[in-house]
Amino acid sequence: MSKPETAKKPMPRHIAFIMDGNGRWAERRGLSRLVGHDQGYRALWKIANTCLDLGIPHFTFYAFSKENWRRPKDEVDGLMALFEKYLDENLNPKKLADARRRGLSFRVIGNFLDLPSHLRAKVRKLLAATRENRGHILNVAFSYGGRAEIVAAARKIARDAGRGKLQPGDLTEETFSRYLYTGGQPDPDLLIRTGGEFRVSNFLLYQIAYAEIYVTDTLWPDFKPKELKQALREYQHRERRFGMTSAQVKSTLRPPRKD
Ligand code: FPP
What is residue 258's predicted lDDT score, i.e. its pLDDT? Predict the structure, then answer.
């Protein structure tokens, strides 16, 4: 697989994707929204494989938000079925061997307790089976809400403080981020949103503080590896200042990396 033109410039360590536009993709073709989600599932795999080939260590796909439970029942059921397909496919022994070979570990971020018990069992199994794989982490955000994640972290912190495991003065941004669902992973450097809307939709609210944002009108099922590479080229031409001046960034000082 060919690397983006600017392969010498830093690549993102973490890319987060808001996969919007499945419904519109289907409706424009007179098809059911679920067909759009099926196509979106295929696009997810093409993009995940491209991230693996490009050596991106972390990538996160927003598959189902906490708010998506409010969608019509047949659409929610369809998305649950797709999530189960994702888990089953990756639990297949051949796929597990492939994940081992590629150093791919799977994670699911979101409110685990919202999921039906049969899905929870499969999530646990997939996480356990790929936990030792080193190199890449593929996160799927499912029943995920950014505010809920922050509140859940605050609750765990309060519990640890109550047990004397943590002193209030020890709580730093770094400690806080360890309590998030993505604890231990770097923050996204690049957030890609398809479908043309300029919103963050309650996604990784804490983690995207310094992310570069790329919004495209392309609907998610049409988002191809070629456009991912275009987004990477654009990312590589952005000046990331982390609060400093442009002159400081251009000097020998390197911007602090936020992990
Ligand atoms: C938003 O587009 C997309 C979703 C709510 C679902 C995204 C899910 C997938 C791409 C596949 C599922 C993957 C897994 C791993 C289960 P939308 O339907 O709101 O699009 P619209 O704005 O055009 O209506």
Answer: 54
pTM: 0.93
Helix axis angle, 73-91 relative to 33-54, nearest 10°?
30
User: For residue 195, which of 14, 28, 13, 3 has the smallest C-alpha distance?
Assistant: 28
DSSP 92-130: SHHHHHHHHHHTEEEEEES-GGGS-HHHHHHHHHHHHHH
Read off the pLDDT of residues 160-218 as tens digits, 9 standing for 90 and up: 999 999 999 999 999 999 999 999 999 999 999 999 999 999 999 999 999 999 999 99
Domain borders along the chain are: 5-253
What are the pLDDT digits (tens) for 11-26? 999 999 999 999 999 9
| Closest CA to ligand 1's atom 15 | 83
Q: If you measure from the C-alpha of residue 122 to the centroid of ligand 1, how many angstroms do you get, rounded to a whole number? A: 21
Instruction: Write the pLDDT tens digit of every residue in 59-77.
Output: 999 999 999 999 999 999 9
Could you tell me which of 15, 21, 23, 135 has the C-alpha nearest to residue 71?
Answer: 23
Q: What is the CATH number of domain 5-253?
A: 3.40.1180.10
Pairing of strands 58-65, 104-109: unpaired
Tell which one of 27, 35, 37, 202 to mutate to probe ligand 1, the residue whose CB is within 8 A of the most ligand atoms. 37
User: In sequence order, what E strands does 29-168 have?
Assistant: 58-65, 104-109, 136-144
